Write a sequence for this structure.
């Protein structure tokens, strides 16, 4: 999966769909599901003595959503867009926005095998 922890995403389907970007807190199951901040919130009822709530009560927490229900939010073009992968001139792999063609960060170190400038 191309979306990583800490990226900004827009929820495109479901009851939490909106055009405002939210941050990805965790990526699960090889990128198929992710926990997004403020999206798909549920209440978990806990008894007294729970580590997060010693007096008991209700904990509000985010549950995972499918990665197909979100799109990456590009900071440079300020729109949700798809991500692509490409090699740079040094041979490192990077993610890029398919709308504005800007880089979204590298994901692997440089390798001589894929370098175009020698």
């Amino acid at each position: 999966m191309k979306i990583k922890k800490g990226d900004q995403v827009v929820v495109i389907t479901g009851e939490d769909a909106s055009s405002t970007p939210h941050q990805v807190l965790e990526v699960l199951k090889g990128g198929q599901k992710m926990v997004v901040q403020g999206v798909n919130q549920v209440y978990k009822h806990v008894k007294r003595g729970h580590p997060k709530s010693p007096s008991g009560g209700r904990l509000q927490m985010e549950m995972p959503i499918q990665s197909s229900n979100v799109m990456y939010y590009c900071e440079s073009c300020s729109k949700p867009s798809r991500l692509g992968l490409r090699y740079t001139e040094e041979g490192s792999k990077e993610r890029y926005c398919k709308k504005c063609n800007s880089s979204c960060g590298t994901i692997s170190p440089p390798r001589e095998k894929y370098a175009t400038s020698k």
The two ends are 30 Å apart (CA to CA). Residues 16 and 59 are 19 Å apart (CA to CA). The longest strand covers residues 22-28. The mean pLDDT is 92.
